[in-house]
Amino acid sequence: MASDGVILAQRLDEIVRMRMLLHPKDWKAESVLMMNRWFDYRFTSPLSLTLQFGEIYREKLRAHIRRHEDVGKAETVSGTREGVPHEPAKWFTILWKARQRADDFFLPYDEYIEFCFDFSSRRKRYWTMLPSQLHPSLKNREAWLESFDRFYADRITALVKNAGEIPEYRLENDLGLPAQVQFREIMLSEMSFSSRRMADQIAERVYAKRHLDLASALARVVPDDREEVSNRAQSSLSHGDWPEAPLVKLTPSQQLPSCFGIAESFNAEGSHCSNCPLVDKCSVFGRKAMDITARLTGYSSPLWEADKRRVAGNVANWRSRKLSTQEHLTIPEAGVS
């Protein structure tokens, strides 16, 4: 596993590249999206998530073409470009925004994109969806959401049951980060509503995967039954019914939230920044990313600066035209005394 220094340098580089390629309006919601997106994406930078989303999109697009159109054609289509551009590019901004929309639906990207293509295949379309079209439109919104609700209800239970395979959610790495706290709350809630035996759930979540502490799990059990349930869970684990997750101890730098260091998303409305133990380090890191971007480009956000110059130019032109019109109206006509 990479050292703390390498991890921090990579995250810093990705934030700087983001600042050079996108407008702040495109990333200011990342602290909110961090808690909306699927569990396993919450410790990966938005830039890396966008690349991952693009890769999955291309795979699903080609599978869709093979199934519904032509096998040969499938290998020639991409729908979007690969990698990170060296300068601001419309296609990358579109891909970034498409990834953000997917984050709001709390599903793994492959599941979300699979649904989008499946929905498309059942409607009369004359083109294959681009990333910007992987969401409900004004025309199909009602049908899209109705179909999505059925899809979601059918998949989410199994997805949540198998969630949290990354080491950031194991108790030995708990820092009390908002993503970790919410994950445990959801897992405890699932235990209460699951039809599985409580002993099996404890064997899995407490002993094998180490997602929950024993006391929190047993609080869902009738007091008189707690000792028996705990013993059954331990017996189930010892018999090999639940293989133990590998012990991978992470440092704080190895479990940075995806929004870490994104200055404009700091304390955004709806964010969990105030409850994050890394909030001070995040703020310092964000300022460092801004300083580096300014040193490289002259501005902490080149696109925002260009946007301000464009607006200022438009205002100046409008004022100039208005002044010219007023002067024309005040010039007396020839022969008029």
Secondary structure topology:
Blueprint lengths: L3 H18 L8 H4 L12 H23 L2 H4 L15 H14 L5 H13 L19 H21 L16 H16 L4 H11 L5 H5 L7 H13 L40 H19 L4 H29 L7
Helix pairs in contact: 1-12, 3-5, 3-6, 9-11
Give structural notes.
With 337 residues, the chain is mostly helical. The chain has a domain at 171-247. The protein has 13 helices and no strands. It has helices at residues 4-21, 30-33, 46-68, 71-74, 90-103, 109-121, 141-161, 178-193, 198-208, 214-218, 226-238, 279-297, 302-330. Helix 3 (46-68) runs parallel beside helix 6 and helix 9 (198-208) crosses helix 11 (226-238). The longest helix is centred in the C-terminal third of the chain and has 29 residues, at 302-330. The radius of gyration is 26 Å and the shape is globular. The N and C termini lie far apart (89 Å). The model has no long low-confidence stretch (mean pLDDT 91).
- State the separation between the terminal residues, measured CA to CA: 89 Å
| Main β-sheet description | none
How many H/I helices? Answer: 13
Low-confidence spans: none
Say how many strands there are.
Answer: 0
Summarize the structure.
The protein has helices spanning 4-21, 30-33, 46-68, 71-74, 90-103, 109-121, 141-161, 178-193, 198-208, 214-218, 226-238, 279-297, 302-330. With 337 residues, it is mostly helical.
